[in-house]
Design a protein that fits this description.
18 helices; 573 residues
């Protein structure tokens, strides 16, 4: 399923670089881009597909983390709000303002217990957070947006106005508080944009390979294995960056230096096709406290409703799946806040789970574990001249800042100085993205490609301004036609993605290059037609095509977890 131009072959042909990054999640990819922009020769390997592990399991939000204020993580909240505001400018094609409403059922509850929860790291009895406590938190939260703020300030409404605006809310509601954060419509596509930007900037000095694992060390280098062919090469670098998220300790063990940095917790989500529930949200995210004190969300996205999330201790030896018990929890939380709307499993079109890359936390309750990040340094086993930098922690919202921090540590290790900042650098399809209606009309008129403004508008919304490349590819493909089973996509569009975005397996396309799986459209018929469309550019035989359909459906529907057992995992996801 690899072709002759695989990323692994480029690494094997020249098995050295200034920096080797292990892990192709958002933090690894962002660090890859940052270091390439400093003029370094950088290689990145990912043992599965890019952004297919923890980074693929987010709540699709870029947020300041209002609830982290209760943990006393003021530095992180300030950084997260700053990064959120920046991403609204730098990636407006995928990061957009999100109006968020908190239903509140008490006035003073939690005022005394909240400080105790902070001092005891979550050890005190859970008390519902009341209006006064939430008001104080939102005032502090707003204060972090004063410099360069990109979203309006919060507002409070009483019971009558709240029920007028949200008539399906639990009638016990006393207040609603509304504030603004940001949505992340397509996390995986934003990450692919970052990868593409790095390669474009590197001009041969930015090499990346998915389905390539770091499996050991030998003769002062890291042994890389192409998991599709079994081929191996020994790769040398002055700095090795371990950005493998919750698998950081496993990666270090493979590199000959077992560590105990990580203590990730599992978070799951479900996606529902439920018109009544979608309407009840009023187009806003509902962000609230469930009966157990866990902060949860109901979030309209792509014509579906995203519901999450759990925060459960997780043993990395266990499968990472959304369990039936978690589904029960999600259905119950919907009933708690919107009691008149019936929900059952038949309306679930997609479910996913991931492990947050949190630091080890002993007896600290999961909700009180720090979401901040740090970098640990150690020599590479058998190669004292090579340093391994391990990223512990990290989250979607702060990916640019954590990458900057990790890049600066790398530059210092190499006795080099930063030559370029990423603080004001647009990302991928956010470059030149039209943010006003006149600018949008002008862009569409210039790029409609001969097949109409309506289709160009769909592609602009899907890819940002890099839609121009997709439109050009469609225009020169004489065999382009809408999919019979999913006419929102066309065969030439999918072939372009398969040809240019490191697609190795069909699930890469269904789950990460498109939203087909997320919206619940990855049926057997759709999967088969997509496989037929891309088979010519990926060199798939009829037998391979059938195997890819079976593999993809198993992963989409969770029957066959995409990841091997922990004992066989040696690097990132």
């Amino acid at each position: 399923m690899r072709d002759g131009g695989s990323g692994f072959e480029a690494l094997a042909a020249r098995p050295s670089a200034d920096v080797l990054i292990i892990g192709g999640g958002i933090n690894g990819l962002a660090t890859f881009r940052d270091l390439v922009l400093q003029g370094l020769d950088v290689a990145l390997v990912e043992r599965a597909d890019y952004v297919s592990g923890a980074s693929a399991s987010s709540s699709h939000m870029i947020h300041g983390g209002i609830r982290y204020l209760e943990n006393g993580e003021f530095r992180l909240v300030h950084e997260a709000v700053t990064e959120r505001n920046a991403l609204l400018r730098l990636a407006p094609h995928f990061v957009r303002p999100l109006q968020t409403t908190i239903p509140i059922f008490t006035t003073f509850s939690g005022v005394l217990s909240a400080p105790l929860r902070f001092l005891r790291h979550g050890g005190s009895k859970t008390r519902e957070r009341g209006a006064l406590l939430i008001k104080v938190g939102l005032v502090i939260y707003d204060s972090f947006s004063r410099s360069g703020g990109r979203v309006p300030r919060h507002s409070f409404e009483g019971r009558a106005r709240s029920l007028e605006r949200f008539p399906r809310l639990n009638p016990r509601v006393k207040y609603t508080a509304t504030y603004w954060d940001a949505s992340l419509h397509d996390p995986e596509r934003l990450a692919i944009d970052i990868l593409s930007d790095a390669r474009a900037a590197g001009r041969g000095r930015a090499r990346a390979a998915n389905y390539t694992a770091a499996v050991g060390v030998a003769d002062g280098g890291v042994v890389l294995r192409d998991l599709e062919t079994g081929d191996e090469t020994r790769f040398s670098a002055s700095v090795v960056i371990n950005a493998s998220g919750p698998w950081t300790d496993l990666t270090n063990a493979a590199l000959g230096d077992p560590t105990s940095f990580m203590g990730g917790t599992k978070g799951s989500h479900i996606v529902l096709d439920h018109a009544e529930l979608l309407e009840a949200t009023g187009g806003r995210e509902l962000f609230f406290e469930h009966r157990d004190g866990r902060i949860v969300l109901i979030y309209p996205l792509k014509g579906r409703v995203l519901v999450g999330t759990t925060d459960l201790e997780h043993d990395m030896d266990d499968p990472i799946v959304c369990t039936e018990e978690e589904v029960d929890y999600f259905i119950a939380l919907i009933g708690h806040i919107l009691p008149g709307i019936p929900v059952d499993r038949s309306q679930i079109v997609y479910r996913f789970a991931g492990v947050r890359p949190l630091p080890g936390h002993g007896g600290v309750a999961p909700g009180f574990v720090s979401r901040d990040y740090r970098v640990e340094a150690a020599p590479l086993e058998g190669s004292p001249g090579t340093t391994v930098l391990s990223l512990v922690g990290g989250k979607w919202t702060t990916f640019r800042a954590s990458a900057e921090h990790l890049a600066d540590r790398t530059l210092a290790q190499l006795s080099l100085s930063r030559v370029r900042s990423t603080k004001k650098l647009p990302i991928g399809g956010g470059r030149g993205y039209p943010t006003t209606e006149p600018a949008r009309r002008q862009w569409l008129a210039a790029h409609e490609g001969g097949f109409g403004v309506e289709r160009a508008a769909i592609l602009l919304d899907r890819y940002g301004t890099v839609a121009a490349d997709v439109i050009e590819a469609i225009a020169v493909d004489d065999d382009d036609e809408p999919l019979r089973t999913l006419p929102e996509y066309s065969t030439a569009e999918l072939r372009h993605l398969a040809r240019t975005e490191d697609v190795v397996h069909l699930d890469d396309l269904l789950m990460r290059r498109t939203s087909i799986a997320f919206i619940g459209a990855a049926t057997a018929e759709v999967a088969a037609e997509v496989a037929d469309a891309v088979a010519p550019v990926l060199g798939w035989s009829v037998r391979t095509r059938q195997a890819e359909v079976e593999r993809a459906l198993a992963r989409v529907h969770g029957a066959d977890p995409a990841w091997p057992d922990a004992a066989s995992v040696s690097t990132s996801r």
